[in-house]
Amino acid sequence: MLKSMTGFGRAESTRGETSIVVEIKSLNGKQFEVNLKISPLLKPYEFDIRSLMQQTLQRGTLDVSINIRQNGATRPVVINTDLAKYYYQSITMLANQLELPQGDMLNVLMKLPEVVTPSTDQLTKEEWKDVEDTLKEALTDLDIHRQDEGQMLKSDLQTRIDNIEQYSLKVRELDPLRKDRIRQRLEGLLAEHVGKDNVDGNRLEQELIFYLEKLDISEELSRLENHLRYFREILKDEDPAKGKKLGFVLQEIGREINTTGSKANDAGIQQWVVLMKDELEKAKEQVLNVL
């Protein structure tokens, strides 16, 4: 199983005159981060809401909105009429002194501080249970989207890893020819500058072996093969939260590809190394979205 961190979930429930709407948008992120927009009535339950989401979603950057409405409107508010009257008297007196038109006084009063405040009513246990159930439903919807997105990510990652493996096989095919060319080039240079009869064959063979060992890439290719196999094993793992682990393995894959390219000293092999690097970068971009 593979899950993406990207997705959207929505749920809505209604009981009597009260309706609850939950919307969750998830994007990739290194940790668990939540931008929570909730009704004032839900402030006492903020910790429970965050805890429930973290248990389900584990990682990602989330935008969460939870609204409680009654009769199509937001939860009732309280109008402080005494404060509104005080504001009205003060504004009227000031307007008369300055000989200014009073205009739409009610609209002005409604925007002044503390005139309109949220209701101090608290949710009943039944109402909180409705909110919790609706949140769980939205989380389930989001999780389904994450799974669907994860399947596409898995398919793409498998393609990238398969391509890297095919290109590494091409490198293996070219490696013996590369060694022969290096040997021939060195022997030709010695014959040209020193003379073939002046070359100690045994010493030359020892130096060639030493030089070719420094340029040998068989260990890098073997480790690369092991990393690719391990990457596939992680993809098959039942644990859905494996994005970080996959990222670490890709770093090791990149290290072996880079070392192969630097040691190969061969134009033909370098072309395949470039293609492997291209596939690796595409895989890294996709892994950033994996849970």
Automatic annotation (TrEMBL):
Keywords of the record: Endonuclease, Hydrolase, Nuclease
A GO MF term: hydrolase activity
Superkingdom of source: Bacteria
Residue ranges occupied by any Endoribonuclease YicC-like N-terminal domain in the UniProt entry: 2-154
Cofactor: a divalent metal cation
Signal peptide: none
Domain Endoribonuclease YicC-like C-terminal: 173-290
Protein family per UniProt: Belongs to the YicC/YloC family.
Name this protein carries in UniProt: YicC family protein
Taxonomic source organism: Chitinophaga fulva
